[in-house]
Amino acid sequence: MQCIIPAWLIVADSYMNELNKNTCRLGILGSAAIVSRAVLDVISHIPQVEVVAIANRTRSKALHLAQRYSIPHVLHSLEEVLEHPHVDAVYIALSNDLHMEWVLCALEAGKHVLVEKPAGLGKEDAQQLASALKQSPSLVFMEGIITAHHPWQAALKAIVNSGQYGLLNRTETRISIPAPKSHRDNYRSVRLKGGGCFNDLGCYWLQWIQHLVGLEGSRVSAFSNFDGPDGCDWTFNAKLRYGNGFEANVLTSFELPYKAMHTLYFERATVVVPNFFKPLTGFYSLKIRLNDSNPQTYLKQFEPMNYYVNQLQAFANRCLHPDVRQAEGHLSVERMIWHQTIMEYAQQHATMNRETGNEGSHF
């Protein structure tokens, strides 16, 4: 898709930005359920952000949200949001296969971008994003991996770096969220729309491992039967092995019982972050625990927080304060490449297993 941005937009937007340096005026692309949770229900906690426009291909859905949340402008197309002179930034909440297309259009239109995860679906998307970010160095790009903006990640990294429990040998991550109605009529159950559990949930693991130890230098193995709807992966295992002996493992699933936990196995202790998705649904306190016989012992307890508030606040800070902008785009680019490498490994081995009649996990 080629995005044609009117010349008047550049002049008008520049002028209005001078008048609104203390407010990030947000336009929303899409009307999925995540829009309310990620932006509209939490925006009252972030006075620097104002939602000024929304558009959706099914306009009635956008009208419903606009009425419920007092959004002043319901536009007729996604393009109109990008062309609107009073929109500084956009939040993109479309199906996975449309994310990168509209990220590129938004950056070309001169808008800061917050896009739902995954930002893209492969190496081609990664290359396009890298090129677009190079051409728009003053714009903010953020992929909506909500867990990235909670201090538990920095706290775990500090524990690893301190060496207080010896070397970190292995991590185990479990992210399983049963699919309501098998995600029927949902992009998560459509292969060509980026469906499957690893596209939906694996990004949280990749971002955490990237932050904790980095991704470079690891060797990939992965497995799925790809036996979900439309050949999507409904349970997916992946492992990264590093030259120093460290291993990072993950299990994601749309069919196993709910669980969201990171476990870190050190030489002299085991550390866990139980139910790390809890701040999705409100303001909750998380704890980093020692996995011993006493459930009351913990290494760190955090103030009650909400992931979506943290994320939107971080995005607003970067949009409004150039001095605190962080080059997060290259991290998303790296994750996209590794994500596809992992997925390709699992797909190739699933194909070989089917051809040899040797189905089942050999992970």
UniProtKB/TrEMBL annotation:
**Which segments constitute the GFO/IDH/MocA-like oxidoreductase domain?**
155-262
Molecular function (GO) terms listed? Answer: nucleotide binding; oxidoreductase activity
Lineage, top-rank taxon, reads Bacteria
InterPro entries, per this entry?
Gfo/Idh/MocA-like_OxRdtase_N (IPR000683), Gfo/Idh/MocA_domain (IPR050984), GFO_IDH_MocA-like_dom (IPR055170), NAD(P)-bd_dom_sf (IPR036291)
Stretches assigned to the Gfo/Idh/MocA-like oxidoreductase N-terminal domain: 25-141
Q: Which family does it belong to?
A: Belongs to the Gfo/Idh/MocA family.
Protein name, UniProt field: Gfo/Idh/MocA family oxidoreductase
Q: Which organism is it from?
A: Paenibacillus sp. AN1007
* Source lineage: Bacteria, Bacillati, Bacillota, Bacilli, Bacillales
